[in-house]
Amino acid sequence: MPGGAEFDDIRDLFRPLTRGAGEALGLTDDVAVIRGRPGFDLVISTDTIVEGVHALLNTSPADLAFKLAGVSLSDLAAKGAVPDGAFLNVAWPFDWTADDRKMFAAALGEALGQHGVRLFGGDTVRTPGPFQAGLTVLGWCPTGGAVLRSGARAGDVLFVTGSIGDGWLGLSAAKGEGAFPGDDRAALVSRYLRPTPRFAFSGIVRDLCSAAVDISDGLIADIGHVASASSVGIELDLAAVPLSSEAQRWLAQQKDEAQARLSLATGGDDYEIACTAPQAAQAELLSRAARLGLRLTCIGAVSSKAGVTIDFQGRKLTADRWGWSHLDH
Ligand code: ADP
Ligand code: MG
Questions:
Q1: In this predicted model, what pLDDT tens digit does every residue of 236-273 receive, in sequence order?
Q2: What is the CATH number of domain 5-142?
Q3: Is the minimum distance from the CB of 123 to ligand 1 under 6 angstroms?
Q4: CATH of domain 149-319
Q5: Minimal CA–CA distance to 165: which of 220, 86, 109?
Q6: Closest residue by CA, ligand 1 atom 27
């Protein structure tokens, strides 16, 4: 949509984000041209965020940009892909000022640039509604090497990166709900607003994992996606699910520890990676993560019995692929 103002936006706001990528043709042509890389697969994912749906209304332009980049790139990180380029489809609200647009573009450039991602193209429109944007991200994996949801095998071990539940706590903190000590509230809100795609783990995932998924819907739902795609079962040790110190402080205030841990494990917006690996790879997986200073925790095992089974201190909860149902005592 090449109106005058849109054209200026493309030149002034978005061309710097190409970082001179030849693929983008200076954002002056109808297309981008990506040269194939022999021996590599192009791995592609796309995500859309709508203000008021995937982000709270009145989220700042910079936070919207970091959220969009984080959630989109997280998918590539989970596949073990090396990120390369992106396409942005943005709908500017009529009431966004030139400064708002500038802040969004600058923050997007920062969020993408942290991972070496260059803007290859996109589309720009205006909308009477709230902000929305889609980001299509491209990365590369050695041919056949993308780590899919479907590769888990009975006997594999289940791991998760980082800590779980902060995104969900951060959302309630951002909405002003709950009682959090001041510093915890700020840390959790920022975790929710600006997810970090875990590219630091991509090499480990690529080299050692049989299946992987990034956690957007909630740990339990997303490992359920791995279980069904792989036609296996997963046994989750709920007590082993790693928590941040903020989440631990929140947990200590809750009456029912099992339910509280379940809430953290179903809340979503973590953008960590859950992955499976053969038992024989476990020691190397953990030592590589430790050498890189990365938190990686064993949280369960893959079995041949379909579905997700949750164990908490000997109590069992059975979940279907959409989430969990109830605690059996
Ligand atoms: P067309 O009308 O042929 O689709 P546009 O005028 O929409 O072309 O786009 C011109 C150029 O600007 C293209 O290279 C396109 O990829 C780029 N572009 C437009 N909007 C964006 C955007 N939001 N982000 C990145 N590149 C964009
Ligand atoms: Mg065109």
A1: 999 999 999 999 999 999 999 999 999 999 999 999 99
A2: 3.30.1330.10
A3: yes
A4: 3.90.650.10
A5: 220
A6: 122
Specify the domain boundaries for CATH 3.30.1330.10 within the chain: 5-142
d(CA 34, CA 232): 37
Instruction: Tell me how far apart the alpha carbons of residues 16 and 119 are, in angstroms, rounded to a whole number.
Output: 9
- Strands of 307-312's sheet in order across: 211-214, 273-277, 157-161, 296-303, 233-237, 307-312, 315-320, 323-328
Residues 282, 284, 290: CA angle, nearest 5 degrees = 105
**Which one-letter DSSP state was computed for residue 197?**
-
CA angle 102, 20, 138 (to 5 degrees): 85
pLDDT of residue 261: 95
Q: Is 192 helix (H, G, I), strand (E, B) or coil?
A: helix
Distances in whole angstroms, Cα of residue 271 to Cα of each of 70, 71, 137, 165, 268: 8, 7, 16, 10, 8
In this prediction the pTM is 0.93
Contact 88, 48 (CB under 8 A): no
Residue 30: CB within 6 Å of ligand 1? Answer: yes
Q: Quote the ligand 1 centre to 18 CA distance (angstroms).
A: 12
Q: How far is the CA of 46 from the centre of ligand 2 (A)?
A: 21
List, by residue range, all CATH 3.90.650.10 domains of the chain: 149-319
Query: What is the tens place of the pLDDT at every residue in 132-162?
Result: 999 999 999 999 999 999 999 999 999 999 9
